[in-house]
Amino acid sequence: MDSILVRGNGALSGAIPIAGAKNACLTLMPATLLSDEPLTLTNAPRLSDIRTMTQLLQSLGAEVASLQDGLVLALSSHSITNFKADYDIVRKMRASILVLGPMLARYGHAVVSLPGGCAIGARPVDLHLKALEAMGADLDLRDGYVHAKAPGGRLKGAVVEFPFVSVGATENALMAATLARGTTELRNAAREPEIVDLARCLKKMGAKIEGEGTSTITIEGTDRLGGATHQVVTDRIELGTYMLVPAICGGEVECIGGTLDLVASFAEKLDAAGVSVTQTNRGLKVARKNGRVRAVDVMTEPFPGFPTDLQAQMMALLCTAEGTSVLEEKIFENRFMHAPELIRMGAKIDVHGGTATVTGVERLKGAPVMATDLRASVSLILAGLAAEGETVVSRVYHLDRGYERVEEKLRACGAHIERISA
Ligand code: EPZ
User: Fold this and answer.
1) Which of 58, 130, 264, 280 has the fewest C-beta atoms under 10 angstroms from its C-beta?
2) What does the pLDDT read at residue 1?
3) Is the CB of 378 under 6 A from ligand 1?
4) In terms of DSSP bridges, do strands 183-187 and 159-161 run parallel, antiparallel, or are they unpaired?
């Protein structure tokens, strides 16, 4: 297993290109199952999760070609031969559950492995299943699989009221509703930019959707969808992650392709901490307003609130802030596993349940640390960039799921960072 070695090297400055959004691409790719015409995705990120979704779709009989060094994905589902998503692929990536809605809506049946939990939580899919049942699906859960059928071969429009916001359940229901008979209304729907991006793509394919980006999305089902070419939206989590580089190290970084609307609540918190964020015609320019950043309190919420996927990275910054910060993780039940690793680097963090209290220290000290999940891995890299001495982050396969060419992007800003292959 590879590790990444980082050596604190003072202020970092330069330009970092931001890739297409992993979490948009992982729901756009299964949308190919809704149509027998080609779907082309541009600005696709080059990540292991995308390769896993490619394998899954190919296992169903879809054609997925990766072109232009992975930046373009050409998908086609005109000859689906297998309607079972196997556990051995689904267990590698929970987003695999997103083939359930489209497959059921287009073919009237699907068998999809229940995704396991993961490091950050149990990650149930009950809201996905309840939404599809509301649309008429018969679901039979046995031997770890969801055996789904649409009576008469077609789902029907319904009012789906989500008890709490779920990104994935909204995506599954939205895709399924595009081919259902009649109108579907999704209430308390997720508002993430990735949902808006999915709706934009589905509308290019001929779907009739209104309200995406608000809590109520209305879909008028159609008999069939066509093909489309769609540019994947910029990755707001990669964007936020790299915005933290000058915040934690000093210097000035321009995140190319970044726009404020994707990270508004995050940028507000950075501003309160003493970090300036400026929209340029190329992206977002970020720099500390003066010396050490100030402590701020953070609570994660569904979009447009502070993103849970930036909580670990923000904690790394607050470990070096002046004062004490309180971070509340409201989305996942176990998303502070980066805390013990940061403590190994000299951070002062008290974790009680979903609340972490961080008392800032002048400077962290490099140490060998272990990545536990995707966002925790990159928070350790950020801490290492600012720490005194050397940090070795092990189990970086987590990192490669969500960040392309990290070393290259950070080295371009002057970072001392290298990958050590085991
Ligand atoms: C998506 O996961 C993202 N993944 C996650 O990003 C992100 O953290 C999350 O949304 C929240 O923004 C992808 O888009 C591939 P949820 P998802 O359904 O859809 C509970 C990353 O680092 N829940 O909004 O699985 C769930 O356990 C990843 O890129 C149920 O109880 O998140 C969680 O506590 C990590 N039942 C909360 O709701 C359900 O049926 C929010 O989950 C579904 C979810």
Assistant:
1) 280
2) 83
3) no
4) parallel
The separation between the first and the last C-alpha atoms of the chain, rounded to the nearest angstrom, is 5
Q: How far is the CA of 96 from the centre of ligand 1 (A)?
A: 13
* Residue 118 designated active-site: yes
CA–CA separation, 193 vs 144, rounded Å? 32
pLDDT of residue 326: 98
**To test the ligand 1 pocket, which listed residue (112, 309, 313) has its Cβ within 8 A of the most ligand atoms?**
309
pLDDT at 351: 98
What whole-number distance in Å separates Cα of residue 131 and Cα of residue 146?
14
Low-confidence ranges of the chain (pLDDT < 70): 117
Contact 97, 172 (CB under 8 A): yes
* Strand partners of residue 239: none
Looking at residue 79, what is its pLDDT? 86
**For atom 31 of ligand 1, which residue has the closest CA?**
124
Q: Locate tokens 């073919």: which residue? A: 107
Residue nearest to atom 20 of ligand 1 (CA): 123
> In this structure, which residue's CA is closest to atom 14 in ligand 1?
23
Q: Is 313 in the pocket of ligand 1 (CB under 6 A)?
A: no
**What distance in angstroms lies between residue 302's CA and the mean position of ligand 1's atoms?**
10
> Whose Cα sits closest to atom 38 in ligand 1?
166
Query: Quick one: tokens of 30?
Result: 């299964």
